[in-house]
Design a protein that fits this description.
The protein is mainly beta and 268 residues long. It is built from 2 helices and 12 strands, in the order H-E-E-E-E-E-E-H-E-E-E-E-E-E. The protein has one domain: Porin (Beta Barrel), CATH 2.40.160. Strands 1, 2, 3, 4, 5, 6, 7, 8, 9, 10, 11 and 12 form a 12-stranded antiparallel beta sheet that branches. It is elongated, with a radius of gyration of 23 Å.
């Protein structure tokens, strides 16, 4: 069963928060009446979790002048995810940070779904395999609707959106076609930089008592669009000399579930 799309999930979460009655402003249920410490000012934030990479719109065109563009469907492994950010909390429902993030190396395998000239997939490729790693620098804005309404509860749901620059690294990639004169050919990897954006939602819980240095735990779901990635065109030694007209390429998206900790850098 596939995960729901990020936009419907985020929109539903936002509507649910907007529907909370005014009496919830002091924090829902168990957290009612438990007042958070002051967190105004700069902070550091770290998070770890898991990412489900989703390469989309995969394609590749062999070296022949008459060869068609081959469309590819990719399958991937789930990978680790980590992020470190520095930001500022205005305690009015808004905070923002600059975050560096990275995914682990994910193994990717693509199979032919169609060709541009309608010829059978088996005439061109059985599969293409490679690895993918993404690093990104993101500017994130967080919105906590209950805090914006005046709540100073230790529990604060939030929405988040971000934009930035992604660095997508594709490892050496291999084309397999059992019917070809050279059934297996490998090419070098490459890295590309792309515009990136993200949306998501989560919740923050301050676990320290008032008067102590605040420590806030966070859990979040994020959808990332990291732009596009592509492999290199140069064959590896011993893999012939012809270069593909278009190396393997695809768009990179990811769904991330993470937990983290946020610590203000000032104490009041």
């Amino acid at each position: 069963m596939s995960a729901p799309g990020p936009r419907p999930v985020a929109a539903g979460f936002a509507l649910a928060l907007a529907a909370l009655p005014a009496t919830a402003q002091d924090g829902p249920g168990f957290f009612a009446g438990r007042t958070a410490s002051v967190t105004y000012g700069p902070y550091v934030r770290a998070e770890v979790g898991g990412a489900r990479l989703s390469p989309d719109d995969g394609r590749w065109q062999p070296a022949g002048a008459s060869d068609p563009t081959v469309s590819l469907d990719f399958s991937t492994d789930d990978v680790n995810f980590g992020a470190l950010g520095f930001g500022y909390d205005w305690m009015n429902g808004f905070r923002a940070d600059l975050t560096f993030l990275s995914t682990g190396n994910g193994s990717i395998k693509g199979t032919c779904s169609s060709t541009s000239d309608g010829t059978p997939c088996a005439d061109h490729v059985d599969s293409i395999s490679t690895t993918l790693n993404t690093k990104a620098l993101m500017v994130n804005v967080f919105y906590a609707p209950l805090e914006q309404r005046g709540s100073n509860s230790i529990f604060q749901p939030f929405l988040v959106a971000g934009v930035g620059l992604a660095h997508n690294s594709v490892g050496d990639w291999t084309r397999i076609n059992d019917d070809a004169a050279r059934p297996e050919r490998s090419f070098d990897g490459a890295s590309t930089d792309s515009f990136a954006w993200s949306v998501g939602f989560g919740a923050a819980l301050q676990v320290t008592r008032p008067g102590k240095w605040p420590i806030i735990l966070e859990a979040a779901y994020r959808y990332y669009d990291f732009g596009s990635a592509e492999g290199g065109a140069a064959p590896l030694p011993g893999n012939g000399s012809s270069r593909p007209t278009e190396p393997v390429r695809f768009d990179v998206t990811s769904q991330v579930v993470s937990i983290g900790v946020r610590i203000p850098l000032q104490r009041y």
